[in-house]
Amino acid sequence: MFGSIVDVADVGASRTDPNAHIPQVGTSPMTQEIPGIELLLTVLYGLLGAGLTALGVVAEYVSLQHLGTGELAVAIWMAIFGAILLYGGIYAVGYQRLATRLR
Predict the structure, then answer these.
(1) Residue 90 to residues 51, 77, 101: CA-CA distances in angstroms?
(2) In 21-95, which ranges are E strands?
(3) pLDDT reported for residue 19
(4) Which strand (E) or helix (H) includes residue 74?
C-alpha cells in the first residue's frame, strides 16, 4: 500500500525525458521569482567572507598577545580558532561561494 510514493506528474515526465527529475545547475525557483536576489546574495557572501576573515585576523593577533604573556593554552586555542575563521572566510565563503558567483 505504501511501498513507493511517486507523483503522477513525475511518472509521465520520466517516460519522455529520463533526466526530467534532475534540477539544472544554477536554476532555483526561489532565485527566479525574486528580482535582484542574486546581487543580494553576492553582497551577503562578500560581507560574510570579510567578517569571518576580519575575526580570524583578530583571533590570530590575540593569540600572539597571549603567547607573548606566557599563556600558552589560551594562545594555542586562539590560534586554532583564528585558523578556522580564516579558513571559513577566505576559502569556504570567499573562494567557493563568492568567487564562483563573480565569474
Answers:
(1) 10, 20, 15
(2) none
(3) 60
(4) helix 72-86
